[in-house]
Amino acid sequence: MKTNLLFAAILLSVLQFCLPVNSRAQTNEVATIGFDDFLPLLSKTNDTLYVINFWATWCAPCVEELPHFEVANKHYKNRKLKILLVSLDFKGAKDSRLLPFLQKHDIQCEVLHLYEPDANQWISRVDSTWTGAIPATLFYRNTQRLFTEGSLTSQSLNQYINSFLNP
Amino acid sequence: MKKITFTLMLLLGFLYSGAQGYQPGGKATDFELTNVDGNTVSLGSMSDAKGYIVVFTCNSCPYSVAYEDRIIALHNQYAPKGYPVVAINSNDSLVQVRDSFSAMKQRAIEKQFGFPYLLDTDQKYANIYGATRTPHVFVLNRENNDLVVKYIGAIDNNFEFPESATEHYVSEAVEALLRGKEIITNATKAIGCSIKRKKQ
User: Fold this and answer.
1) Which of B194, B199, B200 is the best residue to mutate to test the A interface, defined by the most A CB atoms within 10 Å of its own CB?
2) CA geometry: angle at A93 spanning A88 and A98, to 5°?
3) What whole-number distance in Å separates Cα of residue B54 and Cα of residue B135?
4) How many CB pairs under 8 A join A and B?
C-alpha cells in the first residue's frame, strides 16, 4: 500500500513536469549546447517539417523577423511542424540579454542557445552555402531541405513552409 | 508541379544567398573611398605597402566591437612590416544609424584608429569583394601590378574570448606571406552581422 502511494506521488510529480506550462516558464530552461549535441537536430526522419532559425538578440533583422515565426508557430500548431529558434548570442549575454529578451517578448517557440565559438568548424555542416551571416533559416523534412540566408517576410516564410506542407 | 515549385524555391534560396565575390587566388580591385578624415583613400595611394588587410567592419555589430582591439593590434603589428589594415564600413546608415559617417568619425577618434576607416556607400565594394558579414577580412598581396586575394574570412576562431583562440587565421596568413610560405588556411567562415544593405 505504502509503495503504491509512493508510486502515485512520484507519478504525479513527473506528470506535473510534463504538463504544458503556460507562457515562458521555460525561459530559465533554455539549454546551451555545443555543435555536437545540436547536429542530430538537423537530420531527424519523422515526417515533421523542422524550421530552424539562426538568430541573436544583437541582430536587428533577426529580431525583426521573430514575430513571423511566432505567428507561424500558432498558425501551424495542428500540423507536423516544429519551429526551433537557435540563438547564437555570446556566452556572456545569455543571462543578461537572451533570457530577458525571451521573457519580455513572451517568445513561445522553442529556443536553444548554440555556443560553439570555432564557427569555421560547423557553419558548413549546417549548409554548405551558408556564409555565417544571420538571420539564416533551414527548413527540412526527412531528406528534403531548403536553406535561406537573409531576412524572411511573413509571406516568404509561409511560402517556404507551404512548399513542404502543401506542395 | 510539386517538383517545379520546390526547385523554384531552392533556386530562390540559392539566389538569395547571392553574393559571389572573390575567392582566394583571385585578383582584387582597388577602390577610392572617403576616409573618416575627409580624404579619399585608395590601396594604390599606399604605395609602400606589400599588401593589405582589408576588413569589412562597422561600429554597431557586437562581433566587430569584440574584434576591434584585435583589428588595431593587427595593424600595429603588420603595418610596419608592409601589411596595413584598411577598414571599410559598408552598412547603410539609414538601416543602421550607428554606422553613419559621423558615428564612424567619432569611433575612429575614440579608438585612435591608426588605419583608414572608409565609407562604402551603397555597398559597392562589399558586393564586388563578396563581403557578407562584419567583420569579414580579405588579405591582399601586391604581385607585380595585381592585388591577389590570399585569405578570406575570420580573424581567429574565438570571437568572444581572444585568449581562447587557437587559430589566428589573419596573422598566420600574413606571417606566411612575409616568409614567402604557403598559406595553410586561406578561407574560413564565421558568424557575424549581415552587412546592412540599402533598402530598395
Assistant:
1) B194
2) 70
3) 10
4) 95
CATH class of B20-194: alpha beta
* Cα B65 to Cα B79: distance, rounded to the nearest angstrom: 21
Which residues on chain B place their C-beta less than 8 Å from a C-beta of chain A? 1-2, 5-6, 9-10, 13-14, 16-17, 19, 61-62, 66, 96, 132-133, 153-154, 157-161, 164, 166-167, 188-196
Flag whether the ipTM exceeds 0.85: no
Distance in Å, alpha carbon of A107 to nearest chain B alpha carbon: 22
pLDDT one digit per residue (tens) for chain B, 200 residues: 555 554 444 444 444 434 479 999 999 999 999 999 999 999 999 989 999 999 999 999 999 999 999 999 999 999 999 999 999 999 999 888 999 999 999 999 999 999 999 999 999 999 999 999 999 999 999 999 999 999 999 999 999 999 999 999 999 999 999 999 999 999 999 998 889 888 76
Q: For residue B114, how many C-alpha atoms fall within 13 Å in the half-sphere facing its CB? A: 15
User: Domains in chain A and their CATH numbers?
Assistant: 23-165 (3.40.30.10)
The one-letter amino acid code at A119 reads A
The C-alpha atoms of residue B173 and residue B175 are separated, in whole angstroms, by 5
Verify whether the Cβ–Cβ distance B157 to A119 is below 8 Å.
yes
- Of the candidates B2, B16, B193, the beta carbon closest to that of A167 is on B2
All structural domains of chain B with their residue ranges: 20-194
Say whether A117 and B2 touch across the interface (CB within 8 A): no
Distance from CA of B12 to the nearest CA of A (A): 9
